[in-house]
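#structure-requests
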Amino acid sequence: MSSMLEVFRTLSSFSPVRADLSKAPWDAYVDWAISQGLAPLAAYNLEYRLGQCGAPEWARDRLLSIYAGSANDNVMKLVNFKQQVDELEGRTIVLLGAASFVESLYPHVAFRPVIDVRVMVPESDLDGFANFLKRGQFRPDPSIVDASKAERTLSDTRTVVYLHGRLAANPEGDRELLARALPMKVFGPSVRRLDLEDSILTHVVLMARAGFEVPMIELVDLRELVLGAPSLGGVYSRPVDAAVLHSRAKGFGVDRALWAALKLVERLFPETATVVATLVPDVSFPVREVLERLLVAPLADVGRTQGFRGEDTLRALLTQG
């Protein structure tokens, strides 16, 4: 019988191997996949890549409906944000997370749901950019709690925008992060995206801030970053520079969080093992043991729907250099 882990690996792959999934736990998988942002990619694989793999018609239909909705919703949110910023000049606006990854890591815009738009700007420009977005009816929304601790949260009732001014361990690190960002001209002259190593590190920072209680689609993001976006020929389609990653990780103060994130990706996606072995930072054995037992192992339990114990302790551990 196909386990949840086997179904997850097959349906979250960009090149799935044909398998008999007739005995997979579909009742549990479908609801879980929808909640984890995995449904659009799973739907595409079932409909166009795996043929008669034994998936029940009701499961295929439900996932396919999410796929269609994801494509439309993604385009609406990204076009809406582009309209706000595409004529803005002289600022530095760096797209993070889904808004950056949807076309730089994924072969199709529908595969990666864009639930929100996450942005980094210079800390001194947080209020200025938030005020600028008011032209597009984006207003502060204190009812929205961001687990990744954005400094500002705005919404126009359709799209939530999270603004960050601090991600590195110190202001100089944030300035260097912004200075290294790459042009993203499709969104206008002020919009940028991070380079590959910085994308990995900021992705880990945001996950660690949330205690690693993040949708599984964010681990698919990390898988593709670690592998160097092999399915595309874009800005992230190159090997990760391990020396650069390790040097910057120390500056970010995220060695432990990076170790945990990479080992979790390795556990979930065995095809990353060779690359992960070159990228994991040096972390002491006692810390590795704690992270493996209290974070990596429980989070690798595919299908888990409840939080894991020791979250506060782990957050403290992960943020200590």
